[in-house]
Amino acid sequence: MAPSKSRLDDTFKALLARREHQGRLRRLTLREPATVDFSSNGYLSLSTNPNIKTAYISHLQSSSDDFSLGSCGSRLLDGNIPPAENLESQIAQWHGAPAGLLFNSGFEANTGLLSCAPQPGDYVLYDELIHASVHDGMKLGRARAIPFAHNRVEDQPGEQETPGPKPLDAVLRALLRGQDGHKVRSGQTNVFVAVEGVYSMDGDAAPLEQIVECVEKHLARGNGHVIVDEAHSTGWMGERGRGLVCQLGLEERVWARVHTFGKAMGCAGAIVLCTPATRSYLINYARSLIYTTAMGYPMLTAIQTVYDYLQSGQADGLLANLMSLMQETHTLLLSVCQKHSPPPQLFRINTSPPESPIIPLFSAHSRSLARHCQQRGYMVRPIVAPTVPKGTDRVRLCLHAANTVSEVRGLCTAIEEWLEQQKIKDLSPRADGVQRPSVGGLTSLPLAEPSKL
């Protein structure tokens, strides 16, 4: 029997209708098998790598016949098994950390860590563009959260005062002068600084060395704790994919790292790298670990297989190809911009070389651009507010080691077609007989950089 109609359904329908009218309605979609993937986070194309799949199946077949598909319990009850603890130790050692604790996802790792580690009276300073999971963790926690301007450590000389969050240095100075300043200066109050290694929407890397130096300068009592979410830097950045912290040699100066396995690593799950004391504390207090079923043997084996592949150097060729493709793609996109000179609100890219496989294509008409590319067989996704700040809508282009230069050229051709269509639309007469302004005539507008809100 179908459930009776509820007034609550009418409320939901009205809210969904309003969101659809605003152009913000989310839907589940299925990617057409024949399309070229320029959208997923699988930067190394490891999830479909035939060598990894063969090795994974071999690991399962060589295991004891009595291994279980699932753990059937939390790690505190019946879900802990030797392969989980062995994997934690191996991953921690590979990334130069003293200990690690597995979580079922990066979201659960961040919410678990941020909700329980900061104590009452502590502060969490966070990059304003940090992931939603960190926001949810802070909301569940007991510390006061304060944003700082994205990837800005100090104001540049002569820079005018801008509205919104201030650079990290200014936020720390204000904190030291505030009502709890004496507690912060004396080390009684802890200050956590949360950033991402690579930001998923802009594709830019955190200025981590400057961040660490800033925290150590202002919090000399050792009460400054930097947390780095390496979700989008794991697997491809640093030596054999160790991540940004290892690339910069900051292993002993960063308090905690979150590495996730569902992006470049091609599987699922996450780990918090930390001290043994922090690991024990999370086991006792992180609710997203305590009250969930632990990963089963098949998933642990998948993670183990991918790490074996990276550590053996088998992915070195994929990494080199990805780096080369990043530069080639940026060069081709710059060529498109120089050829067509579109106004920035129609189409623009960052003029500086990409720092990651994520290249945002900024456009106020991102849905139209994405739809055109999809119709040409290239899967890209429009990203609009509120997922990104208002006025920074974009098509999110993600490159993968399995992509080819030919595919990138095809995508750029599709973008050029779209730009030409927009030019024709703007040149066509309006219904009132007044000619629209020419897009091609706005060539004096520069290629603008996205604002760091």
From TrEMBL:
Its cofactor is pyridoxal 5'-phosphate. Residues 429-453 are annotated as: Disordered. Residues 36-415 form the Aminotransferase class I/classII large domain. Pfam families: Aminotran_1_2. It comes from the Eukaryota. GO terms for molecular function: pyridoxal phosphate binding; transferase activity. The keyword Transferase applies. InterPro entries: Aminotrans_II_pyridoxalP_BS, Aminotransferase_I/II_large, AON_synthase_class-II, PyrdxlP-dep_Trfase, PyrdxlP-dep_Trfase_major, PyrdxlP-dep_Trfase_small. Belongs to the class-II pyridoxal-phosphate-dependent aminotransferase family. BioF subfamily. This is Aminotransferase class I/classII large domain-containing protein. The lineage of its organism: Eukaryota, Fungi, Dikarya, Ascomycota, Pezizomycotina.
